[in-house]
Amino acid sequence: MPLHLSDSDILAELEATAEANLNDHLAKAKTWHPHDYVPWDEGRNFAAMGGIDWDPEQSNLSEVAKAAMITNLLTEDNLPSYHRELADTFGLDNAWGTWVGRWTAEENRHGIVMRDYLVVTRAVDPVALEAARMAHMTAGIAKPEKGSQFLRGVAYVTFQELATRISHRNTGALCADPIADRMLARIAADENLHMIFYRKLCSAALDLTPDAAVSAIADVVLRFQMPGLNQPNFRRNAVLLAKHGVYDLRQHLDVVLKPVLRTWQIFERSDFGSEGERARDQLHAYLADLEVKAARFEEQRDRSLARAAARA
């Protein structure tokens, strides 16, 4: 088999794997309804309907929890961009197309339920939220820059779905509201099943074309950015959320990168050629550097929090 396969060849070779994983996903996925996770009796009209418009005092969430909820929701809102990317990568034929549709339908529930919760409970400014949604969806997301779109795509979404799951779960705890916690735990369960689907696909791609796959994985890991990068205030909010443990370098390293790479046996495999070995060396060096950065960030965060506590 050639060292590098075209994306169309990879899709053909892995179609049976995609179908088997799709069937496994459908057997494990649980049906749930967004309306069952929203406290509708807290809702009331806004000024356009004869009620009162939003005021910051109406929110029961902390500033950090609001930033986390908004960041997570705007990320979910950009679903049309993700759908286009996935449809371009997988195509819409056979099991690939069925997965694209099913994944999109499942993901759409996340934005529905989160927005309903935030608007009904008046947790955030709905006008500012809508303006941010418009800006973020207009910006969209960037396409992969080089190499196999398929290999880069499945590697990226494996890490991204897991990172999103962690962010949702930690945001739920941060909200100090059992309703929000239950809602975000339900969303996180979806994200986990999606991650497993993509992780299995990437594992099969590693067996099919090892060097090209690990090179794509290394490129994704070294350049990884969360999909919400283009949303308003993302960088400021990302620093705030990292400072408060929603998603930080330590979690990215220890809970996302290392477990996935371990599942793929990246550092144990013996089927890489020279290209794959170079990519593996890059990954090893990057993880070591990230360990240093994560430790440094934790030290700085601890000092900052200690100073804030002393002032309080």
TrEMBL record:
Pfam families: FA_desaturase_2. This is Acyl-ACP desaturase. The keyword Lyase does not apply. Homodimer. The lineage of its organism: Bacteria, Bacillati, Actinomycetota, Actinomycetes, Mycobacteriales. Keywords: Coiled coil, Fatty acid biosynthesis, Fatty acid metabolism, Iron, Lipid biosynthesis, Lipid metabolism, Metal-binding, Oxidoreductase. Its cofactor is Fe(2+). It comes from the Bacteria. The keyword Zinc does not apply. Belongs to the fatty acid desaturase type 2 family. InterPro entries: Fatty_acid_desaturase-2, Ferritin-like_SF, RNR-like. Residues 280-307 form a coiled coil. It comes from Nocardia halotolerans.
